[in-house]
Write a structure and sequence with these properties.
The complex is a heterodimer of chains A (about 325) and B (about 325). Chain A has about 325 residues and is mostly helical. Chain A has 11 helices and no strands. Chain B is globular and about 85 Å long. Classes of the chains: A mainly alpha (about 325), B mainly alpha (about 325).
Chain lengths: ~325, ~325
């Protein structure tokens, strides 16, 4: 049975990331999986260290209110633009606010926007994608067209416009808007991955043995789709964090004085602060750099361990 | 081929229609209407009714959409109620900046990524390959709002090589123009470098394992000759597909870069009019940006079919 994903050109999802087209060549070198996917290589220390780091950041963000941190909005005029010290591990900003505390509290909106919409997208889009990919039919065609149109619209632009008519901006509204973008993306990925397995021998065999649709979806297809879905979900989380950061940098995410990584960077850039106190912009930038690297590395390791090849979206 | 182009053009028109409908409905269906922001403190019921009539907002929705879209097709995207500038005028001044940013940053990305990928693919998993793979992965983690301030800090604030902000038009001379464009373009190119490098490297590695390359080697052809004459072209298809997508995403990146560097491009105008709540301009600019995004992807797709006939069968 020819695999529909096999001889088509490969397009990465339209999110400014490579997808894993890069790994296609390596992944397809002579291997055709038959049967539920198992990791062909261990995930390796890089994956686990990255995962540990991401988890640690999530814990910090969740526990921020109970950690011994200064209030991120408390202004201390006796320590303005102070460098890192034992009292302020990352120093303070131009209003004497503790930067460590601001970065940790500022990471909360980034992580909420990074993870919640993707989880929603995985649940909704994943369910619909699995079903649509296996059953096909009219519903599949309609969902496919709708998701295509939503993804044709540049996400940052759409969110910026919608915000203008949905005031005041709140984290819950942003989460919904990001979920509206994430769901069709994950739907298409999971649908396409499902399609590439739907007519494999082991599925046909299961059907021939009289397995019900439920069983085929959950026991035969789902385990094969999960690794690819996770790899793309991690990239989607990274993309959402970048998009939220860009919005915040433009002053269009949650409003000041609530800190968010993007708006701290923006504060650090304005009023010549980059010159007098570069720490304000540097710490949140470093935070974003490290967490994005960790997410990308995790996705990278997942793809090579499970030999996930790309699917046409 | 003609049939294929026809189908794709039909899709393009259909998607542009849906985008215009979305842009229109976003403005008209969501709670709140522009009168509140336009009138501000003068928001009385009679003034409101008068303004709704003036803006044509009292007509049924399909009628409003029709009027708007007919105007748009005639090139009239409306005018800013704050400055009375037409959207077309704003675009005429702003768009060249975006185009220059995209061209310069694409050139930078290709000039960096192609040689890196060529050298890496020749000896995969060796030191050079590993270090370029790692550093491009790092570039992926440097979105414009992170890379921008850091590069400004290094090259403008500390080294004074280039101005930190501002934009000099080409009319001010090519030197000052390039000086003001180079840093924003580098910031924008990071993401593309990473994408291009990874795609091209993987395709090169797999092409280098083909029989015709072994054949060329056995004929005694030099490595550079094989690379450029035999290997590069069949390995560049996914690069091209990605280039189209990536130019599209440069558009979003350009918003941040233009605000950071104070360059009055489309993104800068859009953000400023959002701050000013000038919804007509936002609607017009968003429409143009979204359609441009779709058209660019369409062109990249089309180029791909020209280079790689296999796609047409899909």
């Amino acid at each position: 049975m020819p695999d529909p994903a096999h001889d088509l050109p490969v397009l990465a999802p339209n999110i400014g990331y490579p997808g894993s087209a890069a790994d296609l060549a390596e992944a397809t070198a002579g291997i055709t999986a038959a049967g539920p996917t198992r990791a062909r290589r261990p995930l390796g220390p890089v994956f686990w260290v990255s995962a540990g780091w991401v988890l640690f950041m999530i814990l910090l963000a969740v526990l921020a209110p109970v950690l011994p941190l200064t209030n991120p909005s408390t202004q201390n005029y006796s320590a303005v633009n102070a460098g890192p010290s034992i009292h302020h591990l990352m120093g303070t900003d131009d209003l004497g606010r503790d930067l460590l505390s601001r970065v940790i509290f500022g990471s909360r909106p980034s992580l909420v926007i990074g993870f919640f919409p993707v989880v929603i997208g995985l649940l909704l889009g994943g369910f619909a994608g699995l079903l649509a990919g296996y059953r096909g039919g009219v519903a599949d065609g309609v969902l496919n067209a709708v998701s295509f149109v939503i993804l044709a619209f540049p996400a940052l632009l759409a969110i910026m416009v919608v915000e203008q008519f949905w005031q005041p901006v709140a984290l819950s509204k942003l989460t919904i808007m990001f979920a509206v973008v994430a769901t069709p993306l994950l739907f298409r990925i999971i649908r396409a991955t499902t399609l590439s397995f739907a007519n494999r021998e082991f599925v046909v065999a299961a059907r021939a043995l009289g397995a019900r649709t439920n069983r085929i979806l959950l026991r035969e297809l789902l385990p094969n789709v999960v690794p690819a879905a996770m790899a793309f979900a991690l990239i989607a989380v990274a993309t959402a964090i970048v998009t939220e950061g860009a919005l915040a940098f433009l002053g269009l995410s949650i409003r000041l004085p609530n800190p968010s990584l993007g708006n701290i960077i923006n504060e650090g850039v304005n009023n010549n602060l980059l010159q007098s106190n570069p720490y304000i912009a540097v710490w949140p930038s470093l935070y974003i750099f490290v967490i994005l690297t960790a997410l990308n590395l995790m996705a990278d390791r997942l793809r090579s361990a499970f030999e996930i090849r790309d699917v046409k979206l | 081929m003609a049939r294929y182009i026809g189908i794709r053009l039909g899709q393009l028109v259909f998607i542009s229609f849906l985008i215009s409908l979305t842009a229109f409905l976003l403005v008209h269906l969501l709670p709140g209407d522009p009168t509140t922001t336009i009138l501000g403190p003068y928001d009385t019921p009679s003034a409101r009714a008068e303004l709704l009539k003036q803006l044509g907002l009292n007509k049924p929705l399909y009628h409003q959409y029709w009027t708007w879209i007919v105007n748009v097709l005639h090139g009239q995207l409306g005018e800013a109620f704050t400055t009375k500038q037409t959207v077309s005028n704003i675009l005429a001044v702003a768009l060249p900046i975006d185009i220059e940013l995209m061209i310069v940053s694409s050139i930078i990305a290709l000039v960096v990524a192609i040689p890196l990928a060529l050298v890496s693919a020749l000896r995969p998993n060796r030191l050079f390959d590993r270090s370029s793979t790692t550093s491009t992965l790092g570039m992926l983690a440097l979105p414009p709002f992170v890379a921008g301030p850091l590069l400004v800090l290094i090259f403008a604030v500390s080294l004074h090589w280039v101005p930190a902000t501002g934009f000099d038009r080409l009319s001010a001379g090519i030197g000052p123009n390039l000086k003001s464009v180079i840093l924003p373009s580098i910031v924008l190119s990071f993401g593309s470098i990473a994408v291009y490098f990874r795609l091209l490297r993987a395709d090169l590695i797999s092409t280098l394992q083909e029989d015709f390359v072994t054949m060329a080697r056995s004929k005694g052809l030099s490595t550079p000759y094989i690379l450029f004459r035999h290997v590069l072209r069949p390995s560049s298809f996914s690069l091209l597909a990605a280039a189209g997508l990536s130019i599209g995403s440069l558009f979003s990146g350009a918003f941040v870069v233009e605000v950071l560097f104070q360059m009055p491009g489309v993104g800068y105008q859009l953000v400023n009019h959002i701050y000013a709540r000038d919804y007509l301009v936002v609607q017009g600019l968003a429409l143009v940006a979204a359609v441009a995004f779709v058209v660019i992807n369409f062109v990249a797709d089309f180029l791909l079919t020209v280079l790689d006939p296999r796609v047409r069968r899909a």
